[in-house]
Design brief:
Subunit structure: Homotetramer.
CATH architecture of the largest domain: 3-Layer(aba) Sandwich
Protein name: 4-hydroxy-tetrahydrodipicolinate reductase
Pathway: Amino-acid biosynthesis; L-lysine biosynthesis via DAP pathway; (S)-tetrahydrodipicolinate from L-aspartate: step 4/4
Largest sheet: 6 strands, parallel
Keywords: Amino-acid biosynthesis, Cytoplasm, Diaminopimelate biosynthesis, Lysine biosynthesis, NAD, NADP, Oxidoreductase
GO biological process, one term: lysine biosynthetic process via diaminopimelate
CATH topology of the largest domain: Rossmann fold
Radius of gyration: 19 Å
Bound molecules: NADPH dihydro-nicotinamide-adenine-dinucleotide phosphate, the ligand O=C(O)C1=N[C@H](C(=O)O)C[C@H](O)C1
Helix content: 25-40%
């Protein structure tokens, strides 16, 4: 049998971390060597011999965690939000100095969500209007969701490449926030509602028709196949990969 991947989970006591610990423990090709929460020293990663780190913490912690992992020869699979272009730029520099390390920043690990974002980007080239509605549990601390930001960026890039103009919008007076926020020219609306987990709709409008591309995560188990896939692939993808689609063959 090939050697098991020595995996550590950061944020192990959080909603996602609890699921990730269970998923890694259940994977025959992986061994959970550390499960750290806030306040635990990252030195424990070295003491435990971790070679792979899964970061499911908070936007304020994730950057330092990934830096520690990369500087200490580990690969990192990151689901935490907050990786804006400035942070990604700094990470690229860090990886250039540590070329053997692989880092996956995955705004969403659910395979259906990754597919929905890719479909939406493709479809958006053929519709006049596009807006995103993301809907999450009310304990979520960031808005808009990382998934919505990523989807908007993919849509904006696809439309720019295809020469599609901005979505029409005659609004000239509004209460603050009524039209959501603007991510690369795409309007994103955030709903926080008890009972929800993670959901997103991309609304595409053309003359006399609408296409809605919706994805629902009803349970955090939906993210675990993507976490495990990321762990299995990250070492063979040195450098930075943004989006699980970087490890998939979507053929779009
Ligand atoms: N990519 C994906 O598919 C998904 C990504 N996410 C993202 O993952 C992140 C976590 O989400 P969720 O599990 O719901 O959030 P939680 O708040 O439930 O969990 C985060 C955990 O990380 C802990 N933590 C904070 N700082 C550190 C640190 N430095 N080291 C170790 N642990 C730390 C927190 O501790 P404390 O409570 O003490 O602060 C908490 O237990 C969010 O950014 C979320 O958006 C969520 C779902 C899917
Ligand atoms: O906080 C969450 O719950 C989620 N966060 C990620 C995001 O911000 O996109 C992924 C998923 O939507 C769940």
């Amino acid at each position: 049998m090939t050697e098991q991947l020595a995996v550590a989970v950061l944020g192990a006591h959080g909603r996602m971390g609890i699921e990730a610990v269970k998923a890694v423990e259940a994977a025959a090709d992986m061994k959970l060597v550390a499960a750290l929460g806030r306040g635990d020293s990252l030195q424990a990663l070295l003491d435990a011999g971790a070679k792979y780190v899964v970061d499911l913490t908070v936007p304020d912690s994730t950057e330092a965690n990934v830096r520690f992992a990369v500087e200490n020869g580990m690969h990192a699979v990151v689901g935490t939000t907050g990786w804006d272009s400035e942070r990604l730029g700094a990470l690229r520099k860090l990886l250039a100095a540590n070329p053997a390390a692989g880092v996956l920043i995955a705004p969403n690990f659910a395979l259906g969500s990754v597919l929905a974002s890719a479909f939406a980007a493709t479809a958006s080239k053929y519709f006049e209007s596009v807006e995103i509605v993301e809907l999450h549990h009310p304990n979520k601390v960031d808005a808009p969701s990382g998934t919505a930001v990523r989807t908007a960026q993919l849509i904006a890039a696809a439309r720019a490449e295809a020469g599609v103009p901005a979505s029409p919008d005659a609004t000239d007076t509004e209460l603050e926030g009524a039209r959501g926020c603007d991510v690369d020219g795409v309007r994103v609306h955030s709903v926080r509602l008890r009972g929800l987990v993670a959901h997103q709709e991309v609304l595409l409008g053309g003359p006399g028709e609408q296409l809605t591309i919706r994805h629902d995560s009803f349970d955090r188990a939906s993210f675990m196949p993507g976490v495990l896939l990321g762990l299995r692939k990250v070492a063979s993808h040195p450098g930075l990969t943004v989006g699980l689609d970087g490890y998939l063959d979507l053929g779009l």
